[in-house]
Amino acid sequence: MVRTCRQWARGYCWRLVTLVLLFLAALPADTARGRSAAVSAPLLSAEERAWLDDNPDKLVLWYNTDFPPVEYANNKGEFAGMGAEVIALLEKSLAIRFDKRASSDWNEHLRALESGECAVAPTIVRTEERERFAFFTTPYATVPVVIITADNAVGGITLDSLTGRRVGVVSGYATERYLSDLSQGRFALHRVKTVAEGLQNLSFRGLDAFVENLAVAAYHIEREGIPNLRVAGRTDFAFAWSIGVSRKYPLLYSALQKALERLPPGEIEEVRRRFISLGPGLSTETRLLLQAGAVFAVLLVAGLAVISLLLKRRLDEKVAVLARAQEEVQRSEARFRQIFDNAPFAAVINDFTDGRYLDANQAFLSSRGITRERLLQLDPRQVHGTSEEERTQVLDTLAREGVVRNREATLSLPDGSRAHIIYSSVLLDIPGRRQVLSMTVDITDRKEMEEALRRSEEKIRSLFAALKDVILIVDRDCRYLEIAPTDATLLYRPPQELLGKTVEDVFPEELARSFKAEVQAVFECRSTRTFDYPLTIAGREVWFSAIVAPLAEDRVIWIARDITESKQLHGQLLQSQKMEAIGILAGGVAHDFNNMLGAIIGYSELCLGSLEEGHPLRENLGRILDAAQRSAGLTRQLLAFARKQAVAPVLLDLSAAVEGTLKMLQRLIGENIDLQWCPQQPSATVKIDPTQLDQLLANLCVNARDAVGEIGRVTIETGRAVLDKEYCETHAGFRPGDFAVLAVSDNGVGMDSEVLSHIFEPFFTTKGLGRGTGLGLATVYGIVKQNDGFINVYSEPGRGTTIRIYLPRHESPGDRPAPRPGDELPLGRGERVLLVEDDPTLLDMTTIMLQQIGYRVLSAAGPGQALELAASGEEIDLYLTDVVMPEMNGRELARRLAELRPGCRGVFMSGYTSNVIVHDGVLDDGVVFVQKPFSLQDLALSLRRALGGETV
């Protein structure tokens, strides 16, 4: 009767709606004509039309199979509902056809929309989270979100009154986020997969309330015939349904929005009226009043007699139903008792309040070795065997959710042994008493087997982990059959993405073809094959050495070992050998070239000294001398790279020494470039020739300046570093120890890996013609190696460059040598000098230079002639000898001269020393050395120092 009245009331409401529609239909024709004119205008842009025509395969629409009446799959499995009809109108308007695919999982539906696999979702609520991956059209229908309960209360419940209650919501729907933000722990949120599942749980008291939009909830309540559910209140949230379009298809979105705007309002309203039984324009209170009025009218018309007849019939039906229900309850109780008593697993019923045993089946009693009568008399704590913490957690869960499913626990048995169980419990609301029904399965044997299996697997996994190899089993088609446990970072893809697939499914075509050829060769020859190959894994190139061997008639075993580190070390070794070879070549070239430059510089200075001021040839000779000296600078850079120059290292405070050059470096790179100085305290002490340190800084800063361009930043840093063995094993040329660090960084153009592999080679440059010699970094490399250090370069194109130099750190600082005198030329006092030089040109030139600065000269064209002169009794105060000569070197000659002329002092000269008068490029204590090519001042200062006069 009540349902019939409600149906009549609903019909009465729709009569009112019909009158409203008739009124709208009578609107002036001008409005319709205006709308018709708008529709006749072009709908889409040329770009939108072209996209729709060219991309029919992108027109994929996913619809929800269980969201009636909005969208669902009908009895024929076709897309139906309000959304389906709106989409049909748009398809007709745009002359397109969507590929419609059913979806039963809303969360999967959203992920497909985000990835672009789904282009269109026909009915979706706009949320902030969804706007990251979807466009939303103007909403075409709005329905309020209501609170549904199994209570009799109507219209008075709010979300605030649900504190401590169990509230259901569909996972993935917009209501889930809405309730999550509001709950703040006030009520327990329970997620379900569908609206139907939520309403069923609510009806059977599994939930206290369910929140959903009015249209869908009303449809399910009526279709499922759930009589005890009511709309108990409204929220401040409503479903405004739009069409969602993946952000990967903006032109599709704009086309659908335009088409939706062009649809006549009457058509959209007609679609809404067919599928939303309670229109959004009427409030819940208004609908209830209309229904009550309709019922009252029916009662007045039907009369008291009809009502009495109906009530009598209903009463008879109720009595019959109750009788049948009572019989069914009795039969159900009998079935439950039979199932309960004879269940193969333990089942027990406890009082929820105090835990007392109320009943137990035979399986439970047998497992505990006790009778039912005795069990009912015992304190529960004497029987449970579980911890107090376990019992408390279970009771809390039952009070909150009403059920505990598949929970594992460990029991302490009376005999001291332990048992493992898995159990489920449900809270039963029996009138006057709350009871707990629990069912338990003994899984002790299974647990023991699982533990044994786990230990076995761990042992095998440990063995495979110790191998550090990838072990695969593949068949003739190169299909992955098995993958042994291994480091996942060595697999091209996760194991689950490889098993069952062939190499053609996984790798690029060329690589897959080579793999398959190797496997086929093993099958054909029945012999082992070995080969190396690279893979790019997680953006990193990894080299493998593989062994493929026969395993069975139809499969082979593939063992691959990571050899990336050894490959890198091999490449670094080759680079080091190449640099060493280049260094040897550079040193030899510089030595010979130095001799020629020495002659040019010496004779130029002699000529200049013999010409009067203002002589027309002085300017040209000056230019010759300047060019020769600049060329000598190039040879010194080559010698620095080859580590063939002689140096006089001293202990320096690195930070203080660098700070003393900052003004010079700023002038060198220009005021437009920001030079930043970042020293670390306390500073480190190094042993290096101060001139070499100046060379390092000048070359590095000039390179940084050229990389930065007109405006930029160059940073100089000092610090300390302690390198361990493990670090040095992966960095060729590095060695463990305590080091001082000098770093020069810039924010310039940077370098790629190809340029980085050549930067220390002499004459290699990326600068334009005439802008660089290519010796700057080669000089840096040579100086660092000569001082027992090493160098590391990090650079990326467009991100600048950092060059770090590591020099051995010393404990105590020292002073830099005294500054070199200026242009003062110390002259000789007629001392006799034995000059030994195998190059005739240099012999003549040096003789003239010695005579010009006040010395008498005995010239010898080689070591043999020098020894003859020394043995002849000629007066000799000092000898000046080349280092590398035929017959014997300068050191051996000095030893022989010391035997003939004890106490005679000497000066060595050379373009490079080749470790003859130096150890690893460092002068022996007390040795005086002049670097070829030298000037008159260099020569004069060296001779005076050897004779005990002024020092350099």
Percentage of residues in helical conformation: 40-55%
* Number of beta strands: 36
Q: Which secondary-structure class do the elements indicate?
A: alpha+beta
Shape: elongated
Distance between the termini: 122 Å
Nearest-integer average pLDDT: 77
> What percentage of amino acids are in beta strands?
15-25%
User: If you compute it from the alpha carbons, what radius of gyration comes out, rounded to the nearest whole angstrom?
Assistant: 48 Å
- Our count of helices gives 29
Largest sheet: 7 strands, mixed
What are the low-pLDDT stretches, counting only 5+ consecutive residues below 50? Answer: 1-41, 278-287, 289-302, 768-773, 813-822
Describe what is shown at a glance.
The protein is 45% helix and 24% strand.
Describe this structure in words.
The chain has 952 residues and is an alpha+beta fold. Strands 6, 7, 8, 9, 10, 11 and 12 form a 7-stranded mixed sheet that branches. Helix 6 (174-183) links the parallel strand 9 (166-170) and strand 10 (188-192). Helix 19 crosses helix 25 and helix 27 (863-871) packs parallel to helix 28. The longest helix has 59 residues, at 284-342. The relative contact order is 0.05. Mean pLDDT is 77; it is low at 1-41, 278-287, 289-302, 768-773 and 813-822.
